[in-house]
Amino acid sequence: MIRASARTSRRRSHRVVVSSIATACVVLGTAGLAACFDLSGAGPAPDGAGVDASAPDGAADSSPAGEAGNEAGMPLGALVKVADGQTGARFVALSTTEVYWSTGAGSIVAAPRSGGALRPVVQSAGVLDIFIDGPRVVWGSNANNDVAIAYANTDGTGPGSYYGTGGGGLTRIAVDSVAFWGARDINLVRAPRTGSPSTFAQAGTGKVIGLAADGLAVYFFDTETIYRAPGGLNATIFQAKEVPVDIAVDEKSVFWLNGTGTIMRLDKDKAGLEAPKPLTEGIGGLARMALDGDTLYFTAGGSVAGKGKVGAVPKAGGPVTEIAADQNGPFGIAVDATGVYWANYGDGTVMGRKR
Q1: CA end-to-end span of the chain, whole Å?
Q2: Domain count within the chain
Q3: pTM across the whole model
């Protein structure tokens, strides 16, 4: 059940109510492609999140790191603690004035970007992924056999769902300009902004555990295959040997994080014609990423307490910029023209740096 709240509240701690995370992905192909990872639930430390498959815990990043903001072409202000005591904080989204995040207690909370009074927005168990879509906050709900691509106004009023059904299995959602997407077991769910939701089975047989959408197609993967689905027609993009952990797309390219510590890019029109380009190597425990302008931002190293980091790298390749070091379990990340913000599930803090 989803409950709304528009009242202002003092910050408060929440008991962790989190489930495990599924992490896997892949990428490449002909006509488009993708790679991904996922999770669905909450927990003090999502299974596999931020775990480096190629290096010991706490292994140093072998990519060069510049002074914060310099290499990525965006000066950054001082670190800002938006909130603390947010047990199980995991997913993050931004409006023009506030930061939104999920907690392990099954709530979505907002606060001013510079910190201040916390504002409970909605109560919804099993939150996975958060997006700000105009005047609404959109999230995936996967708990108590109540699966939904849900929404509420950013003030907490008018909760509802674009798609809802009994049964579990929702692992990821994505939002683009024409539809809301959900990955559910071996199916994809599409809820168009106008019209009725529809479900279509993926071409493969594995459980969908990651997806991203760009308004023209949705990219998704099971445990070993990446697909691209334009207009509901599934096409195999690539079968990979590595297991990616997150995926993102922009107008030109598909980006993914590998558990082996590489960040990869492949231009959509080069799929099947050229090999993907590694932007970084040796970054232990990559977890999530966000794109803005010419820069890709990421969280990493969350499996070692106090050793996590937030970084940035140009989409075209180049030195890695350290945004923040010594973070405790950084996971979800969001960025826009005025700042970058992330959630540390290890210590329940929500942090940021203004641009």
Answers
A1: 38
A2: 1
A3: 0.79
